[in-house]
Amino acid sequence: MVCGGITTRHPFYPASPVNGGPLPKAVPKSGDWSVEGKYNGWRAWVHNPTGAMFNRKLEPLSIIPEFKPALDTLRGLPWEWSDVEALERRHNLARGTLILLDYLPDDPAETYVMRKSLIHMFASVKGIEVHKLLNEPIANDRVYLPMYWKVAGATAPIGDILSKTPAQNPPVAVTQSLWDTLQQCNKALKCGFWEGLVAKRNDSIYPPKPFTRFRISVLDETPLGILIMTTTQYIIGMLIGALVLSGLFIAAIKK
After folding, report:
1. Scanning 34, 104, 134, 234, which has the fewest C-beta atoms within 10 Å of its C-beta?
2. Could you tell me which residue, 188 or 215, shows the higher pLDDT?
3. What is the pLDDT of residue 222?
4. 226-254, pLDDT tens digit by residue?
5. Three-state DSSP class for 151?
6. The predicted structure's pLDDT at residue 217
7. Radius of gyration from C-alpha coordinates of the chain
8. In a 10 Å sphere around its CB, with 0-12 CB exposed, 13-18 middle and 19+ buried, how is residue 223 labelled?
9. Contacts of residue 97, Cβ cutoff 8 Å, sequence gap at least 6
């Protein structure tokens, strides 16, 4: 794949959430997890070296210029693809801001905890801050890291043990309390800034899901100069070209 004049390894889809639904009906989980608040924005896939942005279907975004300051910040990070939440247009908070959730590692064996540690290490060098004041507006045109809480996994459905006291089951009590807190933050912010919670298993790898349907080429050196053509469109174009050439050849013979 060529992106902004730079040859890259073949892209993958950004990781997708699974087992979504109301917190009281969450499926059983085991092991150690990290929990983050779910921002109300667009999931986006950023090619750091060029600033190209794609949605979770790997279609190019038309509003890339609105994130230019944040994209400039991501350019200095050492990995190629960043998994972000783009905050723009769904509310009037943090316009043009990106929440750096994860990245596509070169080593597929890197766990979530390892990736998170690396993100925080390089973010501190770049001046990227953790979003800590959850009930206050955050700045526009910035990159932030999300707050996260490490939670020991439950071996029973969360809905079955929400009624237990915090002393009996601190992890679940923390999870439910966090969502209650984020709902209060929404009231303070006067909008649905927080959509829910996202739990990520600490030993999970970034799930590779190769993206093979599109052929990507470059018209110029800017992210907006990326032309994406589906395989079907490409084949149709080739067939039309062949028919046109055949027609010209037949016309030349008749002459």
Report:
1. 234
2. 188
3. 32
4. 333 333 444 555 566 666 556 644 555 55
5. strand
6. 31
7. 22
8. buried
9. 70, 87, 88, 138, 139, 140, 141, 142, 143, 144
DSSP letter at 63 equals T
What was the pLDDT predicted at 216?
A: 33
Pairing of strands 81-87, 42-47: antiparallel
Q: What tokens appear for 182 in the block?
A: 């984020």
Cβ neighbors of 238 (< 8 A, separation 6 or more) are: none
Of 27, 11, 18, 26, residue with least CA distance to 204: 18
Tokens of 91: 């509310």
| Residue 199 CB contacts under 8 Å (≥ 6 apart), including other chains | 29, 33, 34, 35, 151, 175
Write out pLDDT tens, residues 152-179: 654 433 333 333 334 344 445 556 678 8
In 3D, which of 131, 145, 130, 142 has the Cα closest to residue 185?
A: 131
> What global pTM score does this model have?
0.71
Which two structure tokens, joined as six digits, stand for 163? 């009624």
By the 10 Å C-beta count (0-12 exposed, 13-18 middle, 19+ buried), 205 is classed as middle
The pairing of strands 143-145 and 129-130 is parallel
Dihedral sign (CA 28, 30, 175, 189): negative
Is-contact 189 134, C-beta < 8 A? no
Token readout for 79 is 């990995």
**Given this model, what pLDDT does residue 241 score?**
60
**Token pair 């085991």 in the structure block, residue:** 30
Longest dimension (CA), the chain: 93
CB atoms within 10 A of CB 177: 13
Q: What is the pLDDT of residues 105-149, one digit of tens each?
A: 988 899 999 999 999 999 999 999 999 988 988 899 999 999 888
